[in-house]
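writing this on my phone so excuse typos. first protein, seq and then structure
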Amino acid sequence: MPPDPSLKYGVASPQDVAGMTGRQMLQATIDGKLPSPPIAQTLSFSLVEVGDGYAVFAGETGPHLLNPLGTVHGGWALTLIDSATGCAAHTLLPAGVSYATVETKANFSRPIKYDTGRIRAEGRVVTRGRQIMTAEARIRDASGRILAHGTSTLMVFSNGNSETQPAAAEPAVTAPEKT
């Protein structure tokens, strides 16, 4: 999938995102008000939907993603899992608060081939604490078959400002699970 010519790629400046919650930042990216990250262009995927504790990426396979054995490199799927889980967590963060992935684990259920076509990676927050969040993601093909799934542990940072610490731990609010 060639990069979408209608998208801007880059990294938003701190001034562009000042005062925005994580969900607002991600929605602004979907809406084209903020640039999509450069990795989305390189790896042929984009953020397409966000909700509270929920994020969806769509991607397109192709020959540019192949490993030496002729299947899509597992790192592509792992990157999608990391992106979907991280952005799901980001939707729950207030303005001025960020996160970093501590660990991401993937399980590959079936081969992803260069001609698999469009995939969907759905991430959902599982637990939300003040400093640690966990999330899970599933990658499905166009017919809904699970190609890979995984989990991430994420550390929450206040960016040095104690006034921007997340509120007390509370249950994650997620979109309904699809089976």
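second protein below, same order as before
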Amino acid sequence: MTDTSAGHGHGAGRYEIRVKGRLGPRWATRFDGLTLTHDGDGSTVIHGPVADQAALHGLLASVRDLGLPLLSVTQVEPDHPRPDHPTHGKERSPDGLD
């Protein structure tokens, strides 16, 4: 069964894109208004809904164009936040690339 036949769009869903370094809130506009949170390891997680694969590739192109080291890309269930994500739902004050 393919994603389309299972009722899932081509890449539509919620994603977490983890990059090395700490991005301040002003960078959210570069990522279509997705939420930025910081982890204790010095990485930033860019997360939120992504319309489709084209939008996901556009976000990844922005990461590349900014020269940010990409650590991971994870599709997450909208009603099931990752339990291992210590900052899920918590905004922290910027202390980096503001």
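Confidence is low (pLDDT under 50) at residues 1-8, 86-98. thats all i got for now
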